[in-house]
Amino acid sequence: MTNSLRGKVALVAGGTRGAGRGIATELGAAGATVYVTGRTTRVQQSDYCRPETIEDTADLVTAAGGRGVAVQVDHLVGEQVEGLVKRIRTEEGQLDILVNDIWGGEHLTEWNKPVWEHSLDKGLKMLRLAIDTHLITAHYALPLMIEKPGGLLIEVTDGTAGYNATHYRLCPFYDLAKTSVTRMAWAHAQDLAPHGATAVAITPGWLRSEMMLDIYGVREENWMDATKVQPHFVISETPRFIGRAVAALAADTERARWNGQSLSSGQLAKVYDFNDLDGSRPDCWRYITEVQEAGKPADASGYR
Predict the structure, then answer these.
(1) Distance in angstroms (rounded) separating the CA atoms of residues 91 and 88
(2) With contact defined as beta carbons under 8 Å apart, do 12 and 23 qualify?
(3) Which of 124, 128, 223, 266 has the greatest CB tally within 10 Å of its CB?
């Protein structure tokens, strides 16, 4: 997909790390100009206390073949988002792709606790981070995107609509956050269709994000060592896999066929014929249902 997005302008909101970083990098590899936003810069760290920065991601975009632009933005602050969009309008005159990947709730989730036991403050903050940020960003950015037909809105979540409809995500606030984003994409799709634009929700599989690798005490180079602790980690994927899914969608002139749908990286890999960095093609959500939840031994044969 080299140069398939040359001349396109993307905003990856929440691109500091994880899926956002992978998406930004692959959009860059396809030739796009990518504005990367987040709260952590090389001179100011967010409450995540993580080393990844928006400048690092922007550099990856440029190194991949695109042009990365890092802008510090708190997407809960409308004035900052409004200023960001005004800057994109001034500098580029267009916005073709908006990726809403803002999250930040990992440290707020209290797993396996009902609502009356879960911290209310943490739970409500989680919803603000997962839902309010996406709506605020869409409010200010979509008017620029629909000025010409062909725009694409990507709402990043965790879990497909089908999976989440039948599985409780082990925390009422987390469950609502992730299912709400899927519905949000469907709602935006109704409003965007008359303008020739497309909105979808997309989920990675078991993501080997920087935080997940740290949890297992491994690096990308030796990630398989984590399967000694959690055998089903064998189905995991890099953040670049969902990045390639988004880049393929953005380059598809017939992407309107997906409008309003819930998609996954593994699903789109079959349609657009792309692989993860190691040449494999993980199909995580099918694996989780057919192997992990079925109580079978960990074995990714036939699933990647």
Answers:
(1) 5
(2) yes
(3) 266
